Amino acid sequence: MDLNLPKARTVKKNAGFFKRLLALVLDLLILNFVIFSSFEKIFLKYIDTNLSTVELITYFQSAETSVLVTTIFFMALLSLFYFTLFELKIGQTLGMMILKIRVEGELSFWKCALRNIFVFPFFPFYILWIVDPIHLAIRGTRFTELITKTNTVEEIHI
Amino acid sequence: MKIKPKSKTTQTSKIKVSLTILIVLFILAWIIASVISLFTEEQAFANVALIPINGVIMPDDSGDMFSSSSVSASWLVTQIDAANKDERIKAVIFQINSNGGAAVASEEVVLAINRLNKTSVALIRDVGASGAYWIAAATDTIFSSSISIVGSVGVLSSGLEFSGLLDDYNVTHNRLVAGEFKDMGSPLKEMTYQEERILQSKIDKIHEHFLNSVAELRSLNESVKEEISSAMIYIGSEGLELGLVDYIGTKIDVVNFLEKKLNISVSIKEYHQQESFFNALSKLTNQKSFSLEAASQNFALEQSPKVFT
């Protein structure tokens, strides 16, 4: 018997702010396990965990910080690889996969890298920590997505 | 022939790609972390802290734009306490090149060194006078060059007075105070004899406290105490005879001394205070054009003359 029911429709829309945020948090948790844990011993070697925040800041100002900066650079570089490779190969990171959102657009290695350049905690990239969320809140896409002509979307089945 | 559904194939492929990426990144992270650890092992295991004390000792990093350089007592105390907590640090070297500074700031550093439960050594370079010598006296051992300037155990509280200048320019200072001695030492009025005696008695008391502390820290006998009470400066070799200095030597001698005493191979970690813009600028110009002493209520342990060779 043919019921002649209406076909299911799929509507795409920009992924919501909190879904993206949660996906990022999940990705950071995965990165913490896969990448950051290997570097933990270097930080413990250089930083006395008994120091208070003020003492820690003073320590960072006074101690030889080149090793820490190098370490942070490599951690950021590997994190960038994580986001870039996942988005390039399967169109979404593991966090996005869990939250059922994905990246759309003509993806290339450099576009994916540029989309995620915010992971570098150095000037001028950390400006994106402010610019991207503001752009996202106002325009519904991140500033780096605008540049790379990509977007993060979620699909809604109606 | 069975054909797998497309979605299932894609899902399996995604899992394979994800696992490959994660494993590759994990291995890369482990390799990079190991290489960094290998290259930094020696540096990380520094066992002697070197804290430089250069310039005027101030309570905070408040050196004015005209002073050549200053060191903050708060910064010094933080570094000393941090070195004290760090179990890897076995000794602390204080590399001194200072004429002294504010009395309370100097004492704060002295008290922090007294709390230090590690071997401490002072290495006086060009000058270790007044408040800076007080700090050196608090350490276990003092090294200096034979021609370093040491001593100057005195207090000064001098200041300019502008009342005559104001009169010359017909400027009136309207004195409105509640409490007879509230504006004692103000540069805008002539100091009375009574005010001078009061301020002098305060300086004498600070001097007595300073002198007693130095004598106690260095275990000086009465005759030496009497000798240094004039705030006289001494060169290193004279200081050695008086017991103000323990050894004549340089940084190499300090390292050798520590290696012998603690039976360790010394690896030094040097602490640096971040320089203010004006300090950096002042170092660039490398000249002290003029200095305005602050109000006379600020008691200073600073030895003004400097010997250049």
Question: How does this structure look, described?
Answer:
The complex is a heterodimer of chains A (158) and B (309). Chain A has helices at 17-46, 53-62, 66-90, 94-99, 109-115, 128-139, 143-148, and strands spanning 10-14, 101-104, 151-157. Chain A has 158 residues and is mostly helical. In chain A, strands 1-3-2 form a three-stranded antiparallel β-sheet. In chain A, helix 1 (17-46) packs antiparallel against helix 3 (66-90) and helix 3 packs across helix 5. Chain A is elongated. With 309 residues, chain B is α/β, with parallel strands linked by helices. In chain B, strands 1, 4, 6, 7, 8, 9, 10 and 11 form an eight-stranded mixed β-sheet that branches. In chain B, helix 2 (73-85) packs parallel to helix 3, helix 3 (103-115) runs parallel beside helix 4 and helix 4 (131-138) runs parallel beside helix 6. Chains A and B meet through helix 1, helix 2 and helix 3 of A and helix 1 and helix 2 of B.
> What proportion of the residues of chain A is helical, as a percent range?
55-70%
Counting H and I runs of at least 4 residues, what is the number of helices of chain A?
7
What coarse outline of chain B follows from CA principal-axis ratios? flat
Termini separation of chain B comes to 98 Å
Main sheet specs of chain A: 3 strands, antiparallel
| Mean of all residue-level pLDDT scores of chain B | 83
Strand content of chain B: 15-25%
Most extensive contact: A-B, 35 and 29 residues
Summing up helix and strand content along with how strands pair, one would put the structural category of chain A as mainly alpha
Q: Report the end-to-end length of chain A measured between terminal Cα atoms.
A: 23 Å
Main beta sheet of chain B, described?
A: 8 strands, mixed
Counted by DSSP, the helix tally of chain B is 10
Report mean pLDDT of chain A, rounded to a whole number. 84
Q: Which outline of chain A best applies?
A: elongated
- Low-confidence parts of chain B lasting 5 or more residues at pLDDT below 50? 1-6, 63-67, 283-298, 303-309
